[in-house]
Amino acid sequence: MAQNFEIPQQVRELAERNVQAAQTAYSQLMDAMSQAMSMWSTSMPSNDVTAGFKAVQDRATKIAKQNAEAAFSLASDIASARDIQQIIELQSRFAQTQMQAYAAQAQELGRIVMDAAKQR
């Protein structure tokens, strides 16, 4: 019978700090990107096509943020995991949840793109 390997507390703490640092850096990057996209879109002439594109862009950005937050949450949970079995359970649950989220997000983006195309 295989023995359950426990991940040392120091390793879990280090992993959690690294996840938090990565999440902070990612958040700063997304904020900078959002500001740049906002400045770019306000410099464009306003019409139905740009309004449709803006809706797609806004929703895609929100979806990217949601997915990144979910991934960082998983990484944080994994960093806190006490053993390999718990890591496998966390990853399995994450995969199931995210596959459902991706399907819903794809449908929503498809609808927004179709709406934007109709405005042309």
Oligomer: single chain
The profile of the biggest β sheet is: none
Mean pLDDT: 87
Stretches where pLDDT is under 50 for at least 5 consecutive residues are none
The dominant shape is elongated
Secondary structure: helix percent: over 70%
Number of domains: 1
**Strand segment tally:** 0
Radius of gyration: 20 Å
N-to-C series of helices and strands: HHH
As a percent range, the share of strand residues is under 5%
**Helical segment tally?**
3
Structural class: mainly alpha
Termini Cα gap: 65 Å
Short description:
The chain has three helices and no strands. It has helices spanning 9-43, 48-80, 84-118. It is elongated and about 65 Å long.
Describe what this molecule looks like in 3D:
This protein is mainly alpha-helical and 120 residues long. 86% of the residues lie in helices and 0% in strands. It is elongated and about 65 Å long. The model has no long low-confidence stretch (mean pLDDT 87). Helix 1 runs antiparallel to helix 2 (48-80) and helix 2 (48-80) packs antiparallel against helix 3.
What key phrases describe this protein's structure?
mainly alpha, 0% strand, 3 helices
Q: What topology emerges from the helices and strands here?
A:
Layout: H1 9-43, H2 48-80, H3 84-118
Helix pairs in contact: 1-2, 2-3
